Amino acid sequence: MGRKKAGKCERPVHRGKDTRHKMKGKTMETFTEEMHDALRASMEPELEGAAVVKLPCPLAMWDLGHCDPKRCTGRKLVRKGLVHGLRLNQRFNGLILSPAGSRYVTPADREIVAQAGVAVIDCSWARLEDTPFSKMVGAHPRLLPYLVAANPVNYGKPHRLSCVEAFAATFCIVGFQDLAVLLLRKFKWGMGFLELNRIVLERYAASLSEEDLLAVEKDYLSSTPQEEELDPFDVDSGRTCMNLNRPLREEEDEDEDDDDDDDEEDSEEAETSEKEAAATTSCKESEDTISAENVG
Ligand SMILES: C[S@@+](CC[C@H](N)C(=O)[O-])C[C@H]1O[C@@H](n2cnc3c(N)ncnc32)[C@H](O)[C@@H]1O
Questions:
Q1: What are phi and psi of 176, to 5 degrees?
Q2: Which residues define the annotated binding site?
Q3: DSSP for residue 17
Q4: How many Å apart are CA 240 and CA 243, to the nearest integer?
Q5: How far is Cα 123 from Cα 140, in angstroms, rounded to an integer?
Q6: In degrees, to the nearest 5, what angle opens at C-alpha 217 toward C-alphas 212 and 221?
Q7: Between the CA of residue 148 and those of 4, 80, 277, what are the distances in Å?
């Protein structure tokens, strides 16, 4: 990933919390209201999965076809009608989350997200060299700062987020946490991502500039034991670890649902997600159980 020095942000930095701020399209008040409505609608048991929830900004994805469609988090969001597909060479005007980015998502990106949305590139981590990043065109490519994946394939790995985790992280950093929750609730393990990264996400969301955000990252990394130093039996570590004796069940695979995508299943996922978040986070990578090739 092209981690470069902090540069100047494209737009003037502001705290990003001023809901009175006027935007070109809709006001921040309208956006916030629509965001709350979307989360509420997505949590209505009778609506969940039945109708497409209207999001306040577009979410998009270039699909490189590298991943197993059943296990890919981006494809699942497309099936749910929450994300739309983009063609190669098709331009996207919002933030583009890209391993080839050089600038970082910061709270100053709030307006870009609110007006033009967020896109991801659904490709395999193992095939970044085959990925034609130049054909995913837009003015705002972005890297995410240090965050740890909670998805079952790359659990515990820094930076290797799935598409849904990347969307969610962006929404948290720019202050639209409801949208992060709305997307993550679609996955059993989803809320575990917020649990795992809560402290650092809050700090990123409070940063004043890209430089500040990178200082937060550096400080966090120097004060947090890294994976190899983690003792899963240290109850005071502040990290939750799953029972290492508990085998990963088949249905805990990357994508726990199938194409049925029915409501009941989704609300079950949502209900279980909080329990999962509290009780299951693994200090053990799960790649020995699930082939990483399938999910990238
Ligand atoms: C490489 S794909 C893998 C998708 C995975 N197969 C899934 O099921 O979601 C993940 C995408 O999420 C975004 N992403 C993940 N981690 C990122 C990071 N640290 N910085 C920028 N974008 C990131 C990028 O768009 C990246 O291409």
A1: -115, 60
A2: 73, 121, 144
A3: -
A4: 10
A5: 19
A6: 150
A7: 19, 25, 14
ipTM exceeding cut-off 0.90 for this assembly: yes
Backbone angles phi, psi at 255, to 5 degrees: -120, 110
The mean per-residue pLDDT over the stretch 271-291 comes to 33
Q: Residue holding tokens 């990578």? A: 285
Atom of ligand 1 minimally distant from the CA of 122: 2
Phi, psi of 279 (to 5 degrees): -100, -20
Q: What is the pLDDT of residues 30-84, one digit of tens each?
A: 999 999 999 998 888 665 555 678 999 999 999 999 988 888 999 999 999 999 9
Record the pTM. 0.76
Please choose from 105, 162, 193, 291 the residue to mutate so as to test ligand 1's pocket, defined by most ligand atoms within 8 A of CB. 162
Query: Angle 260-261-265 (CA atoms, 0-180°, nearest 5)?
Result: 105
Which pLDDT tens digit goes with each residue over 124-180? 999 999 899 999 999 999 999 999 999 999 999 999 999 999 999 999 999 999 999
C-alpha of residue 120 to centroid of ligand 1, in Å: 7
> Shortest CA distance to 34 belongs to which of 48, 47, 18, 53?
53
Best probe residue, ligand 1, of 61, 70, 120 (max atoms within 8 Å of C-beta): 120
Rounded to the nearest whole angstrom, what is the distance from the C-alpha of residue 151 to the centroid of ligand 1?
11
Q: 3-state class of 140 per DSSP?
A: strand
Instruction: Give ligand 1 pocket residues (Cβ under 6 A).
Output: 67, 72-74, 97-99, 101, 120-123, 125, 143-144, 159, 161-163, 166, 295-296
- How many Å apart are CA 276 and CA 269, to the nearest integer? 10
Q: Is 31 helix (H, G, I), strand (E, B) or coil?
A: helix
Among the residue ranges 59-73, 240-254, 278-292, the one predicted with the least confidence is 278-292
Euclidean distance between CA atoms 223 and 163, whole angstroms? 27
Atom 5, ligand 1: residue with shortest CA distance: 162
Q: Ligand 1: distance of its center to the CA of 73 in Å? A: 10
